[in-house]
């Protein structure tokens, strides 16, 4: 079995212009948490999520200066290892800015969507899945290590479900998870805007213009919109 590294980051925000503040990872019984001073101020809306303030990091070194980078880079980039994250594309983007580019990754958000082909689950964020699936664990939400602990439990649930439903052994499931994680997810419904809660295929039949407009917005945003662009192009046959 390859080594699975469960990891999470806390950042100055949720866009491609944001930076690492905290990173946590866990592999078997080995765990690590590091706190760093980002190159920009932490905005209050970010602190409201993870409760890390500018005062808490004012005496910290940057990630590059901290001395932690070489060890984490070597560990994450080892070709025998697989990093696991929820909404992994964002975390991978953040650590790529620090020159960490893992070869193999699993995104539990994309796996959760894959295992819900009818789109019955309303939302796929980590904490929602934690309580929907009644994952019992003592972990603080939106804290990097707290999220890692939830992530590890969620991964085990998803792995067991896939092994059972697809009659695969553990190694086969890991390989399939990597493959699923490597391409965009097909989304099923809206969780925002005037069509909040509606199925995308239903909106296509009644308001195709909205999907056309939304696709243009997603393409122009330059953000982490790969899944939406893929989904809208799929429905619009583009």
Automatic annotation (TrEMBL):
InterPro entries (UniProt xref): ExoX-like_C (IPR046768), Ribonucl_H (IPR013520), RNaseH-like_sf (IPR012337), RNaseH_sf (IPR036397)
Exonuclease domain mapped to chain residues: 3-164
Taxonomic superkingdom: Bacteria
SMART domains xref list: EXOIII
Keyword Cell cycle in record: no
Coiled-coil annotated spans: none
Tagged with keyword Hydrolase: yes
Gene Ontology MF: a single term: nucleic acid binding
Keywords: Exonuclease, Hydrolase, Nuclease
PANTHER family listed in its UniProt record: DNA POLYMERASE III SUBUNIT EPSILON, PROTEIN NEN2
Protein name as annotated: Exonuclease domain-containing protein
